[in-house]
């Protein structure tokens, strides 16, 4: 089968979060299962672009509103990622340093999608599946079915995966002219609440919709940032498929970013060496349990609760745990966390920014990983934590619920709580401290047990293929 993944992110080319991890891994595993798998994404000005060699495979042109634009498609020469990687270059529009955050993001991503459809329409053959990820490629299911320039693709099955329904890519109808020509009576397929809504349009027009965990699929029917009724009515064509992790990239036995590699037999010593590095670097005490948070500092991740929860825990538990945070996001949360560093030097530290290498050392060196998320479609951090023998402390929601079992339950290996508030977090930190200090045998058993759980993409990649086959 020829599968085309269309996405704004793909690790290691460009990643802002979990979307990048998934699109960097799922296609690789699908290729290993014998499929011809291709990823198409925008050509940003990244290190990966500059450090690799590319073939020019296509040049074309299309209209974005009244403006004609030229685009080119380049392909990475060696297939080093384990799948065919194509980048779309539209001069001036996509070749920027950041992935998101520009005033013309609407034009950038609509232009990208038009170029992808135009390129595929120029082929002699048709792909078997177009698999779109999140709203940045959410207009494609509509475009291939309805836009006149791409009519040759009208019967190609499309699959749309919701990695995060909070972001829907809303476009005011004043920009209606950006969408290539279609029968205007079909405008309703683009509209949700008097706005062009790429995520809603994809849910309507894709042949199948998937979410990145079964629990998130259920939750979206009741909480989907305004799309609850749509997701309920399209439930019949939807499926929740749990994300996996790239077990080659995320392997503590071979991870080149770690200070010391380890496996389930050497977890104790291995983690200690990585913890020592973190404690030296951030002025923390190696003898205390180290609790970390890695992620976007936004309300969705309940990062706004962290400063009070950490302050309260340090007082309540007499400073017997240390905390380290890696992330960036809302300026208010960032500065409240930085203030804490002054107040609790030696107990708490924060790194504001994005650092892939520090995140790996933190997964390895921490004793506990805290994820109080209000919304968590799947969550990859807890899966990385499990793989690195770090006990996840998670709120019972979405994918966290599907992947973490509380240690109070039979063969449990994590800590779960119900509310993203100071009380629940501080209480869970108390349980973590007790586990670390007084239940050492159980703690050590949990570490090696969780490292052996298979969360690789093997099973889920095959599930996606089964889903594609059902559309033939
Ligand atoms: P999101 O909702 O942000 O996509 P996920 O749990 O699905 O959340 O994925 C988050 C991914 O982003 C993980 O690989 C995590 O390690 C990484 N990540 C998030 N913030 C940072 C950061 N500041 N530095 C390094 N990696 C980060």
Give the helices and strands, then pairings.
Blueprint: E1 2-6, H1 18-32, E2 36-42, H2 47-51, E3 54-64, E4 67-76, E5 84-89, H3 105-121, E6 129-133, H4 140-146, E7 158-162, E8 191-192, E9 195-196, H5 198-205, E10 208-211, H6 214-220, H7 228-233, E11 238-240, H8 267-282, E12 290-294, H9 306-316, E13 322-327, H10 331-343, E14 348-352, H11 356-365, E15 368-371, H12 381-387, E16 391-395, H13 398-403, E17 415-417, H14 422-438, H15 440-451, H16 458-469
Parallel strand pairs: 1-2, 1-6, 2-5, 6-7, 7-10, 10-11, 12-13, 12-15, 13-14, 15-16, 16-17
Antiparallel strand pairs: 3-4, 4-5, 8-9
The chain binds adenosine-5'-diphosphate.
Residues 17-19, 21, 164, 294-296, 326-328, 354-356, 359, 379-381 line the site of adenosine-5'-diphosphate.
Could you please describe the fold and organization of this structure?
Strand 4 (67-76) and strand 5 (84-89) form a beta hairpin. With 472 residues, the chain is α/β, with parallel strands linked by helices. The model has no long low-confidence stretch (mean pLDDT 97). It has two domains: 2-244 and 457-469, Glycogen Phosphorylase B (Rossmann fold, 3-Layer(aba) Sandwich); 267-451, Rossmann fold. It has 16 helices and 17 strands. The strands form three sheets. A nine-stranded mixed sheet has the order 3-4-5-2-1-6-7-10-11, with helices on both faces. Bound molecules: adenosine-5'-diphosphate. Residues 17-19, 21, 164, 294-296, 326-328, 354-356, 359, 379-381 line the site of adenosine-5'-diphosphate.
